From TrEMBL:
Protein name per the record: Short-chain dehydrogenase
InterPro entries: KR_dom (IPR057326), NAD(P)-bd_dom_sf (IPR036291), Peroxisomal_Beta-Oxidation (IPR051687), Sc_DH/Rdtase_CS (IPR020904), SDR_fam (IPR002347)
Family of the protein in this entry: Belongs to the short-chain dehydrogenases/reductases (SDR) family.
Signal peptide region: none
PROSITE patterns (alphabetical): ADH_SHORT
Domain called Ketoreductase: residue spans: 6-203
Amino acid sequence: MMLEGKVAVVTGSGGGIGREIALAMAAAGAKVIVNDVGASLSGEGPTSATPAEQTRELIRQRGGQAEISTDSVADWASAQKIVQAALDHFGRIDIVVNNAGILRDQIFHRMTPEEWLAVIGVHLNGSFFVSRAAATHFRQQQSGAYVHITSTSGLIGNFGQANYSAAKLGIAALSKSIALDMARFNVRSNCIAPFAWSRMTSSIPAETPEQKARVAKIQQMGPEKNAPMAVFLASDAAKEVTGQIFGTRHNEIFLFSHPRPVRSIHRSEGWTPELIAEHALPALKTAFAPLDRSGDVFSWDPV
């Protein structure tokens, strides 16, 4: 019962990874606010309380405590209501899991402003809005834990996901900033880049043999495999862990590096564009990052 006595808000927990995290946190003793608007994968169309209600019922069937929130993370006032739901139902808030997300994949030169703004609004703005709403309470009680869901699409790269990749890399930077700013209040902030077959990954194309093989690998990875790390990071056992980015891939756990200088070159007389081309480029280009994507880096089968 690593989360005994704690109250957690898990956004986007009506299904997939979010649901598994909510279930695991409840099993670990937390009282959970199950937040989900019940929209389509693209965030369009009608909304429904059913997904959140289903997760709440699963938690209750297993002896846990949970209530629902169907407010959107993508609006400042609405995000305030999500955090307020924890206070209204359980009297406090200790954990925020920023998991809510949508997809509107499109190749960059065809991406519309609407596709860009919708994804940024839910993932990046939503993570900020909910985190900021909880920050006042975390500061007052001198404790709290954030777990943000990032993605290798942002940390490494992927095709046709400029909006999603930008948001997910932005979440990693947001988490680091929260960790720096809130450390004085004993508040921690970390990221998980999960691997799993869920509604979010079900849109991956599977037309060519290569694509089908990639999807087959992902289908082996259940969303429940990501929940233990979320529970750990939210618990007091992780009191010394903050500002980090972890990956969870089936039975593997990864710690990701942060961007740091990898090579430097100095010229006492300074540089001209011509000198950069003649001297700096040959010295630096052997350390250039390859133009790879997540599937190229994580190319082995999950075991």
